[in-house]
Here is the input.
Amino acid sequence: MFVARSIAADHRDLIHDVSFDFHGRRMATCSSDQSVKVWDKSENGDWHCTASWKTHSGSVWRVTWAHPEFGQVLVSCSFDRTAAVWEEIVGESNDKLRGQSHWVKRTTLVDSRTSVTDVKFAPKHMGLMLATCSADGVVRIYEAPDVMNLSQWSLQHEISCKLSCSCISWNPSSSRAHSPMIAVGSDDNSPNILAKVQIYEYNENTRKYAKAEALMTVTDPVHDIAFAPNLGRSFHILAVATKDVRIFTLKPLRKELTSSGGLTKFEIHIVAQFDNHNSQVWRVSWNITGTVLASSGDDGCVRLWKANYMDNWKCTGILKGNGSPVNGSSQQGIFNASLGSANTSLQNSLNGSSASRKQS
Amino acid sequence: MEKMARVTTALGGNTLSGRTMFCHLDAPANAISVCRDAAQVVVAGRNIFKIYSIEEEQFVEKLNLRVGRKPSLNFSCADVVWHQMDENLLATAATNGVVVTWNLGKPSRNKQDQLFTEHKRTVNKVCFHPTEVYMLLSGSQDGYMKCFDLRKKDSVSTFSGQSESVRDVQFSIRDYFTFAATFENGNVQLWDIRRPDRYERMFTAHNGPVFCCDWHLEDRGWLATGGRDKMVKVWDMNTTRAKEIYCVQTIASVARVKWRPECKHHIATCSMMVDHNIYVWDVRRPFIPSAMFEEHKDVTTGIVWRHLHDPYFLLSGSKDSTLYQHIFKDASQPIDRANPEGLCYSLYGDLAFAAKESLISSDSNRKPYIGDRRHPIFFKRKLDPTEQFEYISSSSALSVFETDVESGSMDWFVHTAKQYALAGRPLAELCDHNAKVAKGLDRNQVAQTWTMLRIIYSSLGTVSSANLNHSMGKGSAALPLMNSFNLKDIPSGLGSESRLDRSKGESRTENILMDSSSTLINNEDNEETEGSDVPADYLLGDVEADEDDLYMMDHENPHAEEQEYSLPQEAFPLRHEIVDNPSALDHLQDKADSPHVSGNEAETVSLTPVESFSLISISHSLYENRLPSDFFSPIVRDTLLFYAEQGDVQTAVSVLIVLGERIRKEIDEQTQEHWYTSYIDLLQRFQLWNISNEVIKLSTCRAINCLNQASTTLHVNCSNCKRPMSNRGWICDRCRQCASMCAVCHHVVKGLFVWCQGCSHGGHLQHIMKWLETSSHCPAGCGHLCEYT
Here is the structure.
């Protein structure tokens, strides 16, 4: 069961992104009102706004936390064509208003000529690195060579995706067997049949990112994309928010099977596809173990998806944005059906087990 | 190019129609102006001065006003304006400070009419009076504004702003005598045309130069200004003090502002540098442009609405030497691409969700699926007031959905991490302990795995070892314990179920999870659990028989000490059953009726039964020779892999650590390292630093082990002389005293040492914590206010 706790965000326009920090104790929101707010969780579970400041001169599309090893660092990206890195300053809290922390801009990344639609920090083991993508279809990867100096970022890679990019996700795997990988989604809505999800992989030999895969089945505008936390899996799970929710698995084929030294080939399966939102799906987010996916759509609902032992993904919960339970009869029908079928297969399997036992 | 569909709008008598189109100019444009009947446009620049007629499909060059072999500087225009009453009358502001009027009615090729050479520097702006035919106003870089009567040779009056350069002058549309002027120092002045001695009113509008201004077409009091500070401000001039009523923040300095006809709150802007786009804003929603035209490749220098009463056609000239007609239908609308929702899963399973209020307040059934979210809002003549409202005042509701303790939260992970024993005791005890921990958290499957491991590795592997008697005794002592635990604590249905097979257990936990996290499907779920209980009962007899065997065996144990060696034999049915299950998974049972039928998981199915059957046969034939525990390694390895794939890296790593060498070689180094890093990362997320450190210490991977060794140097100050400690010992080499004395008990601190970074005093963690509970000052008496957080 979930308990909804409503927060008076007090943003003056739409909130476009919410982001928890590494430890789940802090939250950042960004809005079209050009500001970012930071919320801290108090002992009793309330969220208090501890900072609110104007970050950009346009809508702020996304905000993300860096790994705390690098300090309390946020990065935001905006319609004003920039991405900015912010760091919290501690110390002079006494002369400030009590409870308000101070964030300073460490750098502005100005390379894009169009709206920067997403920004994400790379997994920690890669160092202090971030990727941005922009509406003109360019993915840029920046690195701070000195983690103590957040004001110096060098542009390491520029990947041209050909299509207007809307979202980006790093593969979080820390395994040495998996090279750095980025999935890029496009919200290009022109009637072409180009793949709207592209996956780029770092090639050690050429020291460049190259396109490893394109999910050809995704042809509608993609609004969000998220790799599941890897946690020791040998394969990757990718959630895509487009006109429906889709979940893909990407199994890297063993190196010796692929052509020499080049990119990893993947065996890609679509393991789930749900149109229960009945509308555009705007966001997908994984839980920490990568076993539950939350999605939100134009219907104003959050839906939770979970796989059973057969790798069948099912809806395990619906949350209404205002906290009220959903009472749509049609959806219940769907549940009945899916659970019913699961039930019979279960029985089969049990009968089977008894039979096998007798055989042995 | 269906995007370029033609648009027609009726404007009383005359009709505007056309499409998005452009033409190449020979040179960059500085300004454009449109003829009263919206059929012709004049483009002026340093090297261009042409009139184009706006046809249905294209621009057609009508007239080149730039005549002569070597045109004089008078032709180099900074601004151009077409008279709105006399369609033959044009005025230009030349860069050399000359104001020129042009009469298109002249029969000669050179249409130049009058020349006013009164300004000393570049003229930035010229403006005709909206109703008075012969009145022309100019504003110049030299800081003066001049009013000309076209019937006279010289200026009628000169206005001195007493400020810096004039960037824009605009006659008020409603007030006959008023005009506004903007200046480079950020000021805006209002003048009465009859009083050249002094401005009526002045106020500072912007930080830095004010490049442009525009009077509202309908509302007499509204003046919009744009400046280098990237802002567009709307001022209400009706009050005694100019009041800022709207402020739009754009992304670059604002070069031009133009109110949109027929739409009270809309205004078009373009920028002076960096940004080549034209935006149309609704001033009531100042953060997101409601429309955007992205055609130009260089800075847009002039924008003008094609007709005074038509809001859909916008003309623009640019430094990229093109002239464009933009149609509103082809505009891109950033708000449509803007994400109305934010969603994030927290570490603890809480969900933060921000959504546009209209999305969550509305009944979800009310709004059908709209493939294209674009509202054809710009084509509504009279905008629907409700929709308009939604369009301009959007806000989001933010809420956090918190999981309660027993459901989807990650408490089990934290508890497990804290309670698991990973080393320091014999294997059997570790396994039992961990099984109990798992059981206590209702994770039967994991508990079962631990029990299996105990049986595989401890009762078996020790048979051949030297201190066999001792450990066997331990093992057998623990065995009945576990069994009685099973039989006593678990209702028979559940007990049998947990013994059934892992797929069953899996589905069981699945049910529990679904139960708790769903709000909707409780009933169905219960049905399912009930349904699944039935076959469990059906199987119960079978299982109970096994358990009886086991129980019997355990009872025999204490009676016959000498039978220890035969214990493994008797235990084999049990071992067989349990071991059989994880490898067979659910596929075996699924396909047992017809083993050759292949489902959707054909490849795994074809493999698994073979393996498990062979296993069974082998175990039967070999058990007398006591299977080495190595025999089970592949299965254990598969088990661990299974857990890892399921996202439970905790179990995988814990088993890996507990079993150590027994299993280590079965799993390749890279995978192990991957598990370790993932698990350590998770532990650190939950701020379980001590456990993460323990895991690092216990890991056998070199890459993981060395995590502990990195950056272990702490720089401390001597608590006596407060200078940095340089050497390694406890004695400060400056004051020759022991540096790490506890300020509370005055003993040397070994182990956890805490000190204040401000005054360098510190001591035992416990002592300092206790001290600072009651006092805020440093225990050393130095007067420093120490803080312990």
About this structure: Chain A touches chain B through 124 residues (CB under 8 Å). Confidence is low (pLDDT under 50) at residues 326-360 of chain A. The first strand of chain A starts at residue 2 and ends at 7.
